[in-house]
Amino acid sequence: MGKLYVFDHPLIQHKLSIMRKKETGSKEFRELLDEIGMLMAYEVTRDLPLEDVEIETPICKCTTKMLSGRKLGVVPILRAGLGMVDGILSLVPAARVGHIGLYRDPDTKQPVEYYCKLPTDAPERLLIIVDPMLATGGSSIAAIQFLKDRGCHNIRLMCLIGAPEGIKAVQEAHPDVDIYIAAVDERLNENAYIVPGLGDAGDRLFGTK
Ligand code: PRP
Ligand code: URA
Question: Which ligand has its closest atom nearest to the C-alpha of 110?
Answer without folding.
Answer: 1
